[in-house]
Amino acid sequence: MIRGVAAGLLGLALASSAAGQQRALPTGSVFAGADPAAMVEGGRVFLYPTSGRGRLHSWSSTDLRSWAEGPALVRLADIRWIPTRERRQLWAPHMTAANGRYYFYYSVGPQEPYPAKIGVAVCDTPAGPCRDSGRPLLDGADSDDFRAKRPGGCSDDMRPTGSGRYGFEAIDPMVFVDPRSGRRLLYAGGSNGSTLRVFELGPDMVTIARELPVDQPPCFTEGAWMHERGSVYYLSYSSGHWDRSDYSVRYATAPSPTGPWTYRGAILRSGGGYKGPGHHSFFADPRTGATVMAYHRWEGQAGDGPYRGVRRQVALAPVRYLADGTIEPVELGR
Question: Residue numbers for the site described as Important for catalytic activity, responsible for pKa modulation of the active site Glu and correct orientation of both the proton donor and substrate (predicted)?
Answer without folding.
Answer: 172
